[in-house]
Design goal:
Pfam families: Sigma70_r2, Sigma70_r3, Sigma70_r4. InterPro entries: RNA_pol_sigma-70_dom (IPR014284), RNA_pol_sigma-B/F/G (IPR014322), RNA_pol_sigma-F (IPR014236), RNA_pol_sigma70 (IPR000943), RNA_pol_sigma70_r2 (IPR007627), RNA_pol_sigma70_r3 (IPR007624), RNA_pol_sigma70_r4 (IPR007630), RNA_pol_sigma_r2 (IPR013325). This protein is mainly alpha-helical. Helices cover 66% and strands 4% of the residues. The chain is built from 12 helices and 2 strands, in the order ααααααααββαααα. The chain has a two-stranded antiparallel ribbon with strand order 1-2.
């Protein structure tokens, strides 16, 4: 076991000295992450404190049995903590029009779900409402109701790693790579069909219909396997 893993193990066993050492050694990581949130109306020192909280949560939640570097796990945890703070602090102002769009989308989604006997795609919702898909995603993101349009593969203490982050203001290739690395670690534990569906849906961004055609199964089957697999992936990383 290397030095970092040993410190994490000791920290999770209650060694405050090991915990403090891990925090101190990773403060540079926190600083590098919060820079992308500059200019949001908050002092950088406040964001630094929030990011540090995310770091400490990552230390407490890190699973030593996963074959993944701690920094790979910590980046989305820290980022998620800062994003949650900004959202909860009211930095995202939701206009009446965005709320109305989000409400229409939810109603249309439920209606199409009953008609199609499956979850509608973003494209199908956009076509039904005669709207641009980007406008729909923006409205849903603004009111915090992304639901099935933004699947979550990790959820813990309010911090999330999303498979689809359609309207992120500043695309960070390094963060996207790290998120995919975490996802890849989880995928290694899946059965072959489950792995294929998740890969095609969230790496290749294929529709359920395209996946169904490739695997020669029904779209309903793809939808059921996808939901079941995503739930199991959340359980794997939370347990």
């Amino acid at each position: 076991m290397d030095k970092v893993m040993e410190l994490i193990k000791r920290s999770q066993e209650g060694d405050k000295g090991a915990r403090d050492k891990l925090v101190q050694d990773n403060l540079g990581l926190v600083k590098s992450i919060i820079r992308r949130f500059a200019g949001r109306g908050h002092e950088m020192e406040d964001l630094f404190q929030i990011g540090t909280i995310g770091l400490m949560k990552a230390i407490d939640k890190f699973d030593l049995s996963f074959d993944v570097k701690f920094s790979t796990y910590a980046v989305p945890m820290i980022t998620g903590e800062v994003k949650r703070f900004l959202r909860d602090d009211g930095m995202i102002k939701v206009s009446r029009s965005l709320k109305e769009i989000a409400n229409k989308v939810r109603i249309t989604k439920d209606s199409l779900n009953g008609t199609l006997n499956r979850e509608p795609t973003l494209e199908e919702i956009a076509q039904e409402l005669n709207m641009e898909r980007e406008d729909i995603v923006m409205a849903l993101e603004a009111v915090g109701e992304v639901e099935s349009l933004q699947k979550t593969i990790y959820q813990g203490d309010g911090s999330a790693i999303s498979l689809m982050d359609k309207i992120e203001e500043d695309k960070n290739p390094n963060e996207e790579l790290l998120n995919h690395l975490v996802l890849q670690q989880l995928m290694d534990k899946l059965e072959e069909k489950e792995k294929t569906i998740i890969y095609m849906r969230y790496f290749l961004e294929k529709t359920q219909a395209e996946v169904a055609k490739k695997l020669e199964i029904s779209q309903v089957q793809v939808s059921r396997i996808e939901k079941k697999t995503l739930l199991r992936m959340r359980q794997m990383i939370n347990n």
